[in-house]
Amino acid sequence: MFLVFLLMCLNPLPHAFALNQEGLYLQRVKQSLSDPTNALSSWKDRDETPCNWRGISCDSVSGRIDSVDLSEFQLAGPFPVFLCRLPSLRSIYLVNNSINSSLPVDLSTCQNLTTLNLSLNLLVGSLPDSLAKIPTPKIYYFSGITSQAKFHRVSDNSNRSSCKIWREISLTERFLLSWETFRL
Asked: pLDDT tens digits for 52-73?
């Protein structure tokens, strides 16, 4: 028994499964998407941190993921809601992929999200009302999406002193959707 314990302690593969929690969330994102060009091949489950993975940026002080840019990776599938489990995530760029679903209600769990760019995807449905629950100032881009997507006004009247409303602005064939907060 002592020999088995000694062999386990001297294992030549230290940190074989040392990927941090953020990396485990990104592994779930990878599993949820079709990746025909292997754009996510640098996302190895044996790495200690995902900060060196393609498309991932981390804060230099905290080491936490603050931006995910998977633009033009030719990914397909539903919106990867596991991204919202990254507590310091501020930006998501999924431009020119085949994200082919409606945005999930769970998107409101991206509490620090300030930028979401889903331009040139296959989104359908309406923007979820839960987006009004994200507290930080934000800018969302949805250009070149299918005609099935519908943009509508979203309001959050839970705070009687302010109301958040979607406003659509056309900018040289691009659509910028942003929050405007009005005091009542």
From this structure: 999 999 999 999 999 999 999 9
